[in-house]
Structure formats: C-alpha cells, structure tokens
## 1
Amino acid sequence: MGRRRPKKGAAPGVAAQEEEAEPMDLVALKKPMEEILPEEHEVDPTSADYYFDSYAHFGIHEEMLKDTVRTKTYQNVIYENGFLFKDKVVLDVGAGTGILSLFCAKGGAKHVYAVECSLMANTAKEIIQKNGYSDVITVLKGKVEEIELPVQQVDVIISEWMGYFLLFENMLDTVLYARDKWLVPGGVVLPDRTSLHLTAIEDADYKHEKINFWSSVYGFDMSCIKKQAMLEPLVDTVEPNQIVTQTQLIKTMDISNMTPGDVSFSAPFKLVATRNDFIHALVAYFDVSFTKCHKVVGFSTGPRSRPTHWKQTVLYLEDVITICEGEALTGKMSVAPNARNPRDVDIVVEYTFNGKRSQASRRQHFRMR
C-alpha cells in the first residue's frame, strides 16, 4: 500500500485509552474530550475558525470538481431527472464555484439561489455571468442561517454537504435549517439519504511507522507526543486487500425527515472476520443516495468503490487484535459534534474481543478536527 498523507496537517492515529471505563451515553460523550485536551480550548484555532476561509481558495474546489464520482453523479441526477427541476425554484446550499447551480439552470430550473459564505461567492458570480446564466442564478453571499431569500419557499434544495466521516464540518445542520425554513411542503432535498459503514483492517506497517515513530526520534524519547498523534483519525485511501472483516451498517440518515439532533448517535457493531489476520484499525466510510429520482442513483466512498476525495476514515486501535475467521469484534460507536466547536466531530469507540489467540476490551476517544 502507498504512503498516506494526513488531512490538512493532521497527525494520524488513535486516541488515548481509558482503562475499565463504564459505557457512556451521548450526554457524556463530549466530557472526556475536554479532559484529554484541557490546555487548547481557549487558544487553539480549530476548523470553526478556518472553515469558510478554507473554502475561499480555489484548490479545494479543484479537488472536488475533479472528483468525477461526486460531480458526475450530481450532474446525472439533474440532467436525467428533469421532472424534479423543470420550472422549479432551487436553493443550492454551500454553492462554492456554482457548479451545481449551473447544472440546475441548464437542467431547466426556473430560478436558482446559490448561497455561499466564503469569498468564492464573488468568483461564482463571475463564472455564472461568463456562462450566460445571470438571469437564472442569483448568488447570495453569507451564512444560510443569516441571509434572507427573495422568495418565501423553494421547491428543491440541493447541496454537497458531506464531509470526511460524513459529518465532519457539520454542514448537514445548515441543510436541515434551510429545509425547515424554505422548503415547500412536498419539496425535495437532494441527496436525501446517506449511510455510514464500519469495517476493520490490517495495517501494521503504517501504524508502526507513524505511531511508534515518537518512541525514538534521533535517539530521543518523544513518546509523550503519541497521545496527541493518536487522537485524530486518519483520512486516506484503504486498499481492499487490507479488509479483514465484514462490513457493518452503523447509521442511516433520511435528510428529508431527520432532525438536527440525529447527527448525534450511538450504534452497536459486530465485525465478523473473513480470514485469519490481525486488526490494527477500524475504517468508516459512507454511501450517498438520491432516492427521489426516476431511478435510484448514488455512490459509495468505500474502499471497494471508485476513489473519491472523501477517501475513508481510519481509526487506529490501541490493541493489536489477532482474529480468526468467523470470530467477531463487537462494540459500540458514539458520535456527536464537539461541544466547543460543532464543526469538529467527537467519536468514541468501545470494543470487546474474546478470541482463541487474543483478548481485548477498551474504550477509545477520537476527534476529527
């Protein structure tokens, strides 16, 4: 497998352990994270500070537009389902360069309101004008929660809101806010369904390279940094031949009907080994579906599917688990927006394993930031 590159300067790894911890509910989920990083809360700039600024740079939009799995799926949904867009008023939440708005306008929308908070809104206006759609697309610069639309209701809300681990950056809450404020009864949200999945992998070489590196750095013991290096999940591409277990569906989200509180959840998992091997990490990925189309359309960000810019999310375990075919790693995953910065995601994994060749029981904390 090729060398991995951590997302946005993040250190790869797993979270620090807590021995013999009691099972936790979602109310208690955020507290341990505050205890792990007590010094940084008052001074550490997080994704909330940089979120909109980061989307002002063309590079991130280039990465997303070159993701043909993502962009072509949206294009096909719009062009091949004219009954959803013809003569309809559309709201594009987080419009970026305006590419989805352009698809909608070309697909027959009566009018499109493209909302973008970053400075990319100015560029989107220029792009829309150059392509002759200024009379159909109105770009509104600002936060969805703070702007006012020139209309009281819209027929369709479209957005590419998904982040790493599906929920990183928490743009889903913005889509739900727009849905509740402007969507006409019987209106359509696209995409309207997502699902989060979990599997387990063997990854000894990379875990050793990145985590154990701190044990001896040019002859000096820097192992105290491991706690920090192991806190954040790693976003990268996992090779299919690394997968050791079956896949478990963790969470399904119905965007048309869910409430903002549904982004916090706790779900059990049971990962059954398909071969004799070692488990070094859990891997999460998500699927996206457009079920309101004439024919259901969607894509997966899983390791066995075509690569996307979302890649997969790797959560390294403190234990190395020796698992035999047919044995199961069981546990629970709890997920919630971080209490201080809701664009970050707190993840807690509780797992238990009792196999022929190894045993383990632990609770680990992760934070995507």
Note: The longest strand covers residues 277-290.
## 2
Amino acid sequence: MTSVLPPQKESTSGTYTFSSRPRALPNRSKYRDPVAELQEEPTQYGNIMYDRRVIRGNTYAQHILPVSAQPDPIEIQRQQEVRRRAAAKKRAKDQLRPRTPEPVEGRKHIDVQTELYLEELSDRIVETDVECQTDAFLDKPPTPLFVPAKTGRDAVTQIEEGELFDFDIEVKPVLEVFIGKTIEQALLEVMEEEELANLRGQQRAFEELRNAELAEVQRLEEQERRHREEKERRMREQREVLRLEKETAEKIAARVFAKHYLADLIPSIYSNLRDNGYFYDPVERDIETNFLNWLVKDVENTLDDHVLGRKVLDMLIREVVEKRLDVFQQMEQQQQHNASA
C-alpha cells in the first residue's frame, strides 16, 4: 500500500523543499550471468571534454544544433564497431577463462560445499527409480504403396509430319562439336603427359646431380673431419711430449739442487746425532735390552719357586701339627673317660 505525501507549503524563509515518493529497490541478481553479459551491449561512458554539445572557449562561432538533427552515420558506425570489438573481446576472454573439464563417461558433476560450515540443501529434488514391464513389440505391418490422388484433366496434342526436327540432321553439328572437343582434350592430355614425362626426366637428372653433389660434400666433410682429428691428435701428442720434457727438466733441476743443498747437511746431522747420543754401542745396547731383561725374569722365576716351596712346606707342617693335635685331644678324652669309669 502506498501513500501520497501532501505537497509542502513554501516556508517563510524563502527556501523550497521537495520529497519524492517511496519506491522499492529493483530486484538485482546476486551473481553475474555470463550469457546476459555477452548479449547486452557495452555501456558507453561519456566524456564532456569530447562532447560537441559542450562549448569551450569563445562562443561567437558556436555550432548550434538544429531541433531535428540527425545522428551522424559515421559516428553511429564507429560506435557499432566499438561495441562489436568489445563484445568480441569479452567473448574471447570468456572462452579463455579456465573451466571445469567435462566428466568422463558414466559420471557427472555435482555441486559440493567448500565452506567452513556445512549448510543443509533443502531445495534438492528427491529422485526415485521406477521400473515397469512392457509387452513384447509386434512387427510393424508393411507400409502401403503411396498413390497420389489424380488432379487436373488429361490433354492430348496433335503433331503433324515435319513439325518435329530431323535427328540425323540436327545432331550432326552437335556431334562434330563433341568430336572436336574430345580430340582437342585428348591432344591436350597427350601434350600434358609428354610435358610431365619431360619434367620427370629433368627432375630425375636434377636429383642424380644433387645426390652426386651431396655425396661429394659428405666425402669432403669426412676428409676434413679426419684431417681435423689427426691435427688435434698430433697437437695433443706434441703437448704431452712438451709436458714430459718440462717435467723431466724440473726433476733433474730439483735433484741437482737437492744434492748441492744436502752435500753439507748430512755430515752436520750425523755429528749432531752422535753428540746427542743417538748412535750407541751395539754390544752395550744388546746387554741392556736383551741380557738384563732375561736375567731379571730368571731371578723372578727363581724367587717365585722359593716362595712357592716355602708355602707348600708351611701347609704340610700345619697339616701335620693339626693331625697330631687331634690325636692328642682324642687320647686325653679317652683317658678322662677311663678315669671316670
């Protein structure tokens, strides 16, 4: 239900107020429709800097448009061209947009919720499968022959003798033309075959010449390759010989330098070692390392034998003493027993 607002009266201050009727907002779709976007024309945004109706600068020579001014056909054509290009660009961009691949045979795409909280879809249509058994198909009877209904009425024409053309006379120029054209076509085909044979011969000769040139080029390339490899091999051998000669010269020089350097070094080293006691008497060293060690070990073995003999003797003495003590104790016990009896 709508209500009409009463017009407001002019205020005493000299200002005017205006109120518009309440209206509902248009129902807009939430998502864009790519098909509708392609079909609708692109929006033309105007720029007053290029608008002919806006006067800039001096107004003495301004261009006044007539009341019934017709649009410029060139401008209309240019606008249509701009719209067509924009639509083509949008179509190409839509085609280049990545899409979901088509499902394989036997499957189909299903909308899946990917949000954090699942939402129950209540607008899904319940699907059920129902089967029924039908009777066997009967053979279709043969289709009757179609006979169109007769329309109009029959009419006849009387042809007198000489009214029709003579076939033998009339067909002669046509036959001559056919024969001439056939012979001309045959001659053209023969000439074409001869020309093709000549072209094949020239092509065969050209291929033979080209194959010979290719073989010669390959032979020269192979010869050049062998020469290059032989040159590289000899250069490597020469470099190896030079390296060995240089290495030999360096070794000889190092040996000579070492001899000169060590000529006075060896006697001084021997004298220092002799002074520090590194050169010793072999007999004295043999006595210290071999004889003395053997003597010490032999003495230790002899002392161990003496100690072992003393331990065995002590054990025997202790055992004899213990046995005699036991015999004495038994004899005392027996005497005491006899005395008490």
Note: The helical segments are 34-39, 73-96, 167-262, 265-275, 282-340.
## 3
Amino acid sequence: MDALALEAKGNKSDAPASSAPAKRPKQPKKAKRIVYFELEILHAKTREKLLLLDKVEPTATILDIKSMFHKSNPQWYPARQSLCLDPKGRSLKDEDVLQTLPVGTTATFYFRDLGAQLSWGTVFLAECVGPLIIYLMFYFRLPFIYAPRYDFTTPKQWVVHLACICHSFHYIKRILETMFVHRFSTGTMPLRNIFKNCSYYWFFAAWMAYYINHPLYTPPMYGEQQIKTALMIFLFCQLGNFSIHITLRNLKQPGSKVKKIPYPSKNPFTWIFWVVSCPNYTYECGSWVGFTVMTQCVPVAFFTIVGFIQMAIWARGKHRSYLKEFPHYPTLRSSILPFIL
C-alpha cells in the first residue's frame, strides 16, 4: 500500500510542465499615432497665401519650417524670414517647437521679409577695421588731410604716438575677439545696419584723429603725470574687458542658445560681476575715459559720452532680460555702474 502511494506521488511530481496554464505572450505596444500639422503661410502685409505645408511633424522647429519655405521661395533664405502667429506680433524663435506653440493642427503663420542680412562677425569687422585705418591715415599725416600752411616738419608730441598705439591696440583687440572669442546668439543682422554702425565709428575715428594728430595739437594740461595715469586706466580696463569676454564665451557652448547667469571666477577682473550685470560695457567705457584724459581732446570726450549712453541702454535691456529669465538673479547687481545705474 505504501509502495503504491509512493509510486502515485512520484508520477504526480513527474507530470509534464505543460499541464500548468501557459502564460500569454505580451502583445506588442501599438505605435503612437503621430498627429501631423497643416500650416498656411501668409504675407503679413498683403495676406497673400505664399505656401501651404501638409503633414508637418509636430516636433518640427520654426527653423525647419523656414527651410521648407525657402525651398519653395529661394529668394527668402531662413535668416531673412520672420514668422509670427499674428501679422503685427513678435517673431517666433528658430528653436521654438511647433507642438508647443498655441496653435491647433491647422495653423496660420504670417511672413515678414527682414531684408538682406549680414553676419554679426562681418559687421563687427567692418566697424573695427574702418577706424583702425582712418586713424592711421591722420597719424601719418597724409598730404590731402591737413592744409599746406601747417608746418609738417613739426615733430609729434610723444602723447600723440602713445594715443595712436592705444587706439590701434583697442581696435586690433576687437578684431581678434570677433574672429576668435565672440559667440553670437543671433547669426545675422539687417544689411542696412552696417551703414549706420560704420558711419558712427568711422566718423568719430576721423574726428578724433584729426585733432589728436594735428600739427598744432598741444599735450594735456598736467603733462606726463596725467598721461601716465590715464594710460594705466586704459590698460586696466582693456584687460578687464577682455577677461569679461572670455568669461562670457566660456559660459555658452558652441551652437547652444541656453542662457546662464555669469558669475565671478578666480580672475580678479571678473569680480565686478558681484555688482554689475554687464561689466564688459563698464570696462569699455572706462577705457575711453582713460583715452579722453590721456589726449585731453573734446571729440574723444564727446565720443565717450555718446558711447556710454548707448552702452547704458544695452546694459539696462540685458539686465532686465536677466531678471525676467532667472527668478533668483542676484539682486545686488546694477546694469553698468555699481549701485548707480
């Protein structure tokens, strides 16, 4: 009886596994259905239909849409296009994604022609090369610049040579920074701006150079002491300006448009970031204050004042942008002048 029980028990344990309920295989996940967009592009002024795009992927960026538009309208390359959701609204950013915009699957975009564009690097180079060449023309006193009645055998004051070195150093530094340091967040600017910008820099360079290099130019009132003090201010601010540009460059990776808050580093010239949002403008203004004191020239002083006003406007705009984008932005900072402006 026990043997039969053991045999029955053994047969039960040796039963094949197939007798257990088999598990059902997992069903493959259904691919998510992609909802495509249909886009209509109208001219912002005339409301003329320029293009109809069908089956645009929701992950497409505004730059992708501009590229599609360019294929149908070769005369308007992407940098020349402005796309917006309202005829008089703000232009959409190239990195904006279609599915994140406040539009339905059938949307209307309005196109504006920004005109011919130039790269920022080209504009910066034109702004800097012009003053460099113009100033040297006056420094070498080319025959057609000053009237023949002036005695061209009169030797230049040593401050005139120093001023030429400082002026040339400033613009050569800017040229090299444009080529190797700056990373521009926007790729282009309207062609018409180059005439406005160059006229400003070139005119002031000629005006300053005419008086500083004039045969009748007289040195500053306090002589050598004033010149050396001003030179130290100029060089200090030039080094500071370069340090800030390097800091801002390292803050942004190539091709990235992610904005970050700049902070002081181990470089003492960057410590001004504790109290100023745009110290590059602060140092730039300081350089021209030093150059004004060095040359004691009214056109240089006028250029410094106008430049400060313009840079203060840029700095305040950037400061407001920092406060808007970063909730925890340091409240101690001013835009361009510590605790003042």
Note: The CA atoms of residues 282 and 292 lie 15 Å apart.
## 4
Amino acid sequence: MGQKIAKKEPERGARLYDEQRFEEAIEEFKLCLTRKPKSSEEFLLYGQICRCYLDIGKTGEALDFANKQMEQANQSNDNSMKSEAFFHLAVCNELIGEFSKSISFCRNSLQIDETQNQLKAYLYLCLGNSYVGLSEFPKAWKSYYTALSIAHTNGDKLIEILVNTRLGILFTSLNDYDGGIDYCSKAWDLVNDIKESDPNIKYRRLVGVSLAVPYRKTGRYKDCTDLCEDAMKVAMLYGDTVVQVRCMVLFADIHRRRGDNERALPRYESALSLMERIGDRVGQVDALLGMSKTHTNLLKPQKAIELALKALEIAQKVGNKLQMLRCHSSLKSLYFDTRETTLSSRHHTLMKQLAEETDLYCGMCDDMMGQQPERLSVLICGHFIHGRCSSAKSESRQFCAICKKKPVTNLSSAAIDG
C-alpha cells in the first residue's frame, strides 16, 4: 500500500502542473521529497519544482532547486542528469540577467552529449535569449535559427512557437515592428491551434503579450489592449507574474502615449516593484525608461534624468548594450533639453560606440540601424541589414560590410516560412 501511495503522489503533482495549479503542484512535489525517494526520483522532483517556480516567475526559488539538481547529478555522476541540471541553471540565470553564466551552462549541457541531448532545441533557444541579453545579435540569430531547424526536423510545434515569439521580440527591439508582428503572428497562429486541454496552452498568454508590443509601437492600441487584457486575466488566474508585469508596462505605455501620465506612473511603479521581486533586471530598465519619459511629459526633467541614470546603471550591470544605448539616447535628449550640452554630447558619443560594439550598422550600406522604424533583414553570416538594402542589387556591395562574408541568401524570410 505504501508503495502505491508513494507512486501516486508525483502523479498528482504532475496532474496539478498540467492544470497550471503550480503552487499546489509544488506542495505535492515537496511532500514527495519528505518520503526520502531514491536519488533518481529525488532529482526528477527537484526539476519539477524548478519548472513550477519558473512558471510563476519565482526565479530565485527555481535557481535553488536547479542547484539541488546539480548537486544530485554530481553525486550520481550521471551525464543525462548533469545535462538537465545545466539546462535549468541556464534558464534561471537567463531570466535574472546573468547572461554570461547562462551561455556557459548551455554550452556545458550541449558538450555532454550534443547528438543525443533531448533538450538541444531548448538549449539553443536559451542561448539565443542570452545572446540577445548581451546584444550579440548575430550569435542570437544563429542560435534561434538552429533551434528552429531542430523544431522543423522533429515536428516540435512548441519550440517553433517559442522561437518565433523570441524572434518577434528581437525584431521589435531593433525597431522593425513589421518584422516583430510577422514573427509573433506566426507564433500566435500556431499557439491557437493548440487544444484548450493541452498543458502547452499556457504559452498563449506569453505569445499574446509579445504580439501586443509591436502593436503598441505601431499605434494599434485597441489590438494591444485586447491582447493584454486577455493575457492579464489568465496570468492573474494562474499566478504568472512574468506576463503580468509585461502587461502592466504595456498598459502604462499606452496611458503615457495618450497623455494620461497620472495613470501611467502608478502602473510603471507597480511593474517595477514586481520586477525587482522576481529579479527581471532587463524589464526594470523598460519600466524606469517609461517612468523617465512620463516625468519628461510632466515637465520634470531632473526626475526624468535621475530615472534614466538608474536605468543605465542596471543595463550596465546586466551587460545589455541595446538597453544601454536606449538609456544614452534618452539622456542625450534630456541633457540637450536642459542645455547641458557637454553631457548631451558625451552620451551621443557613447551611443555611437555602443552601435559599433553591437554591430548595429547595416551589413550592406554600413549605415546605422535601429534609429527609426524600418524593415530589417538578416544575411547568412548573421548580421542585420536594412530591408531596402536586401532588395537593392549592387555589384559593388556583394559582401557583408562587417565580416566580409558573401550574403548569398536572406535567412529571415526562410525562418518565417519555415
């Protein structure tokens, strides 16, 4: 009888997890740990608890159990265990902005047994996310493209959904809002094919709020609001704080763009507080810059500068050069408006340096990208170019201006068509 009870407890936890009752699942899995299971079962329970915490945005707690998994894997000296533990450590570190650590953990997992690694596509997805965090866009692109290729080979629709979502976020961050909509719409169509009874339906809210961002950027406020309201409602029901904070920032952005600054500020402040709690440092930069712009609208330039400087400090600690560039751009304008021209010029110079470091110069015409909304494309070497340069046929520009590799083909269209 005791053995039957012990067997059913993890099954109850798994069922609760599939039903998105994550807190209850955690309690069930922890109860299983008190029964002193075998080391292999204990390892699996640590992983299940880690995933539960990740799904509700409690990354610190998830990291604790990922470390427990690694301890168990080292004690057992089991390579498959080590591979999974490295993966969970990579995901946790990516989410708290420790991108270099995340990349290292991904590589460690892949090196154990790359050919047989069942997590290979997810590892390349995590690598792509971490490279984006460090603003190493060619490496991010190649990682995403590898993950997508594996997904197509294996018929893995979930990876296809997640990669297209992240590509949508990437292109939106580079001010290619049409590209962002294309990628996120592809993910949206795929996720809406999932049955309501499928546990993976939980990713619908993540895709929805990701699609809402380029909608907001292009002035489609109703579409953005509709997606956010739906995502927020479901996220609150299941305790998904990651999606909740993204929705809060988007609602605040809409209020600010419509001139309702008094309603925008509390939304930003609430989002910032929650992001600090879950360790989302990249998101904190977004919230702080939004607050800075709101105070600019309220004619409070010194407060706006203070917030932008705080955002810059966080971006520098994380190492996110694109966010740093955005902060310098805001400070350049703020100091110019307050007639502090020396400081304005300094931030302009730092902007140019960061643009060079992040390869944000077109691989064909060598002009800077991301300064205005426009279509982008990607060369086979992984460098981004203007969409207009992609269609222009010039014999004098057959090679990438950055790495001198011949473009040959445009990978971004291949990734969309899949």
Note: The CA atoms of residues 245 and 271 lie 5 Å apart.
